[in-house]
Amino acid sequence: MNWEVLLGGSEFHEKNMDRSMFDRDFDRIIFSHPFRKLQDKTQVHPLPEHDFVHNRLTHSLEVSSVGRSLGRGVGSKILDRHPKLKTQFSASDLGVITASAALAHDIGNPPFGHSGEDAISDYFLANKDLLESSFKEQQWFDLVNFEGNAQGFRLLNKSGYQGLRLTAPTLAAFTKYPRPSKVSDNFKPRRSQKKYGYYYTEGEIFKSLAADLQLRALAEHQWVRHPLAFLVEAADDICYHIIDLEDGCNLGLVSHEETVELYAEVIGDRFNRKKLNAINSKAEQIGLLRALAIGELIAQCETLFLDNEAAILDGSYDTSLTDEISAEPALLDIKKVSIDKIYRSRNVVEIEAAGFNVLNGLLEAFVPAALNIGQMNKRQSVAFRLLPADVKLELKSSESTYESLRALLDYISGLTDSNAMSLYRKLMGISLPGMR
């Protein structure tokens, strides 16, 4: 693979433009309807009771900011190494591509965090005997393994969502897992093959994308990552390790002293306890350490990427950057504390329980209606009428059972936490018009 093709060449950028097509990608994502919905989707903790706790929107903005820094830092060195690229691109272009892909990285996540993904998958697994025979093997694997990354790729390519029409480099940088749900060989332990990145319905779209950018093929329907996808992944890893810990400290789940020590382990020689203690506010202390930790991790990831540029371009390097930087042991310590004290805290478990119950209830109501268009019973007909007009139209015009369920899952996974809960209450008779 080579950078000129990977960045799309002159097709996607002209140096004399005030606003490049990569800038346009960023703008289109940030103004899109699916992106705005992230403001009411759980990151880790329930939102209304606490200030300064992250939701999917604030998390995505922060990941995008880190991604921009990574892309620019790497980009300046890449352009120095490959001077011919400077006639078409700037370091800022690589920063914007990475920032755009990072901005959209959670756009396909359903309500209630990762428990929402599990709830959707579990519904189809529980109804395997009734449903499986209606689908091709690849389609069934999509349904029983709901994947936010693949859902995001679908939304970014779905014309109904304002026709984003993003550039190929941005779409490829977004795709951390360039493979479908069912493959004959997972190429373990390749990081890019750990999950999947597109559904059956978008298979041809990704195949064309891979051909345009000349991504190296591992096997039929499996490719190596676009190099900038490593930076998008690193930006996400950095933010959720460092910022989830900050949230845990602010909520009292992890002590201030333990948080300081965990951040100090990441920061290393730059940690100065005397300067830290000169700050009166404990919240400001944590904010400073968070910033220093993120800066240190950005620097380490940039160095590792550049040291492995050749291996990344030939596809032989396929590991998460944060798994190989010198701060990896410190990140592992943070992860252990986060699992024990944050991700398993009572309020997080309550969100997981709600996610399973709410999404299962919605699927039980709407899937039978979607599968029986034209011959619905009265209960299914009532549920169908609760769907938005555009969703009903898409269901009626779907050419297969699989496409009908994909359209329905676009709607359900696109609900915010509040919308999903409100709709569930109405379906269950817990909330009626006029009731308080």
UniProtKB/TrEMBL annotation:
The residues covered by the HD/PDEase domain are 52-250
Q: What is this protein's name? A: dGTPase
Single GO term (MF): dGTPase activity
Keywords from UniProt, A to Z, are: Hydrolase
Superkingdom, taxonomy of origin? Bacteria
Q: Which InterPro entries does the annotation name?
A: dGTP_triP_hydro_central_sf, dGTP_triphosphohydrolase_C, dGTPase, dGTPase-like, HD/PDEase_dom, HD_domain, PHydrolase_assoc_dom
PANTHER family named among the record's database cross-references: DEOXYGUANOSINETRIPHOSPHATE TRIPHOSPHOHYDROLASE, DEOXYNUCLEOSIDE TRIPHOSPHATE TRIPHOSPHOHYDROLASE
| Pfam families given in the database record | HD, HD_assoc
UniProt organism field: Roseivirga misakiensis
Entry's Gene Ontology BP terms: dGTP catabolic process
- SMART domains in alphabetical order: HDc
